Amino acid sequence: MRVTHWINAAAFIALLMSGIAILLAYPRLHWGETGSIHTEAWLDLPLPFVLELGIRGPGRSIHFFAAWVVLFNGIVYLLSGLLTRHFTKNLVPALSELKPASLARALAHPHPSADTAEHYNLIQRLVYLVVIFGLIPFMFLTGLAMSPSVTSVVPFIVEMFGGHQSARTLHFFAANALLIFFLVHLTMVVLTGFGRQVRAMITGYRTSQASK
Prior knowledge:
Elements: H1 2-25, E1 28-29, E2 43-44, H2 56-83, H3 86-91, H4 100-108, H5 122-145, H6 148-151, H7 156-159, H8 164-191, H9 194-203, H10 207-210
Antiparallel strand pairs: 1-2
């Protein structure tokens, strides 16, 4: 689990940087199958057209490579999570926890303390489940829907999103949601003790465990 976590972190940074370079080459979003500088944009982002970035040339290759790293790393993570029952033990909440009163308590105290940070609270578990089984697969599907080589073989992928440009727009918003998750995740790590959390992710032991 720790190894897959760090691989995902590195791949996410590569995806973020290359994705920004790709976006800045054409910072306009369209809906439907086609869209260009000569057609009206569904959303014209307040960003400059930047074509001179050094990463722009290999940016797409880096983006695709990092995406495949996340995919295969994710398969390892899922298999490990199933074999160790990580998902059922640490992420999937009991039905009693999904009652309105339980959700209200979790929302009232969403930030774990340093002493309880080793356990996921209800909000964290629900968010992780949405990201792992919803947002990341959605990112892959919209990414594949933008690839002509993929959609020429399995056209239904792009059809279910309403066209190549629709898939690109949805991919953009999903990427922003994933970025927000990443920033909140880092914030929680800092609030609960950055050194302690990073050390635990490297060694597998927390300070309280190491002192026993």
